[in-house]
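ugh ok so i messed up the first submission bc i forgot one of the chains. this is the corrected input, ALL of the components this time, i swear. 749 residues overall. if the numbers dont match what u have on ur side tell me asap before i send this to the collaborators (the ones from the other lab, u know who)
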Amino acid sequence: MQIEIQGRRTHRKRRTDEGIALLISIFVLLLISVVAIALVVSSGTESALAGNYRSSTGVYYAALSGLEEARGRLLAKNPDSFTTTAPGFLPSPGTTLAIGSVAYVLNPGPTEVAANILTTYPDTEYDNEFGGGSLAGATVTTTNSVWNQTPLNGLNIPGPLYKWARINAVSEKSLNIDVDADGNPDSITPLYYDGAHFSNNPTVGPQVLEITSLAALPNGSQKLLQYLAAPVPITLPPFLGALTLSGSPANGAAFHAPASNSLYAIKGNDQDCNGSLTGLNYLAVGVFTNADKNAVINGIPPPVRASYTGFNSAPDVANITPAFPASLETPSQLDALAQTIAQSADVTIPSGPITYPLPTVTGSALTPLGMSSTNLLTVVVNGNLDISNWSNDGYGLLLVIGKFTYDPDTTWNGIILVIGQGQVDGSHAQFKEINGAMLVAKTRNSAGNLLPGSNLGGASVQFSDSMQGYGVRYSNCWIQKSQPSSNFKILSFHEISQ
Amino acid sequence: MNAVKLIIAAVLVAINAFFVIAEYALVRSRRARLEVMAEEGAKGARLALDQIVRDVNDAGYPPPTYAGTDPTKFASTPFAWSPNYTVPTTCTIDGSCITPGDFDIIIETNPTPQDPTSQVQWIRYQLQGTTLMRGAALKQPGNDPAIDTAAFLAPLVQNVVNNSSAAQIAQYQAAYPGMFPTGNPVPIFSYSCDTGNVPLACTAAGIDNSPANIRDVVVTLIVATALPDATTGEPRIVQLVGRGRRINPNQ
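and heres the new structure output, hopefully the right one now
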């Protein structure tokens, strides 16, 4: 009986506790909910702020990447240059891009079609600059971005989110400027860059190109950026002869042709890049004094002097002082030119600062460069270069500041500058040649010090009597191809409000 | 009896829920006010930062390359200076320049070049107290850009605390140890200058320390809300950092 009463009391107490537990549970749940909701609201605010920042910065750099791709591919030496990867996209280098010719680099995303890009993201800026309906009447060419070409399109990585980059010529009217101050903004004449200012005159320098890029992010952010750019070539000395030797009255040039090789000759008769004569004639050998003229002729074996042909009667050796730029006739001026070339070199061997006595580099250092007729390089050797037994061919501009030991087992297509020690020698066999032009100038002494005063040192080209080879053949084609790749300089930049 | 208990329990739960919801509403309301203030402050600062960066990116447009003899049509230099604004004679940053400086910059550019009647402007950002001001004046050859722009300055961002007192900085550091790392005011504008080699901080650029050589401008905005954090009671501040890069030629 007692047991039964205790059981009822226990049962009643447990039923009361159950109600309290429920209340506490509900209360705790509500508290947790409040805290959770507050956290969600708070983090949402932070996320929105971070997202806005990422978006505005991202779209700017996406548009900038479009500008830079187009600018980079304008460079002929770029492996992805338009010349190489998209023939016909732009006129060949050196040819004016007309007002009304518009070239687009298209960069569709993975789910977009290139043909629809300009419809989905129309270019309204062109008509703003050139007048309503101008784009509809323009000649339009397109090519894909590098991100839509092999090998990058095979990679599973997203490219930049720019949609298109436009390349076109500019005029006074499109830029709202009057470069010739005639009070009449010209709308059909392209602008050119003379190194300091714009001009309507095509002879003052290269053409100014406008590059405009539109980027669009998936969230709708868009940005339109614009460059004006122009190539800034390095001004090389005019190659008046197949071989030019520096010298002055006090420092005579020296030349010794291989006496036992009747096939060796230096010819100023211009050849194209296939070796065919063009009919144009330059000097065979140019020197800076009449004494050097006689010295060079005396260095040619009389039986082969008739082979030294060019502009004048053979042996065609002439004083070029009247025609050579006065701005390049002193040691410091020519040396400065060499330093300018060095600054834009594709390859510098050895790397690092120049040290005297100069180190000697062999031809094997050139092998890995992979020079070819489509990969012309500007190679600077900060030392002596000995290509003895190097049987590869060279393409482009070669600048050697020390002694250049030539081996006729090598054909060099392009320009060879030996500026500094101004020394060339050679003694090897085989029959190849130099196609282009060669300039040898002494501007420094053996300790590396610049020669004082305005008198150039005497260049020295001394081949052994037994050296083989065909010599030097003037080729304006290879000279032009070997001009140091100029940079497309940014002349102006601005963001276009949309 | 059970029904009565159930009703009492339901009433208690309802009362409890009411108080919880009321408390949440109060907290939410106060927090929302602070969030809105913080968000608006940060959003305004972000918009201002974007504007400054865009102006810096466009500095120097159009450059003198565009020819012509009318200096109101091209930027003589990307960044103007004071005193003695005479191109090409400049001052040194953190030296003889009053502007550009840690809390003051004048950008020379044409923000609306497609308008044939437009001309180059001096666009100035200057911190006055805790308010970042912005003003633009048309470039006038021979004038001092600092004087010309002063008349056009208007508030852009308020509660900018970059140039706070030592006591305030100590308070901010206690709440945000990563901010004000040196314990000193944080410049809104930090400059790097072009040199013959790589760009350096202008103050370390020697003879290249000049407004004309400014390449990058790092913009740091530290903005506070008017009220402290609702939960901790500590000051609530946000730091925004952007970088503008001048791409146009320097002169």
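quick check: Residues 2-74 of chain A form the longest helix (73 residues). that seems consistent at least. Chain A touches chain B at residues 19, 22-23, 26-27, 30-31, 34, 37-38, 41-42, 45, 48-49, 52-53, 56-57, 60, 128-129, 175-179, 181, 193, 196-199, 490-497 (CB under 8 Å).
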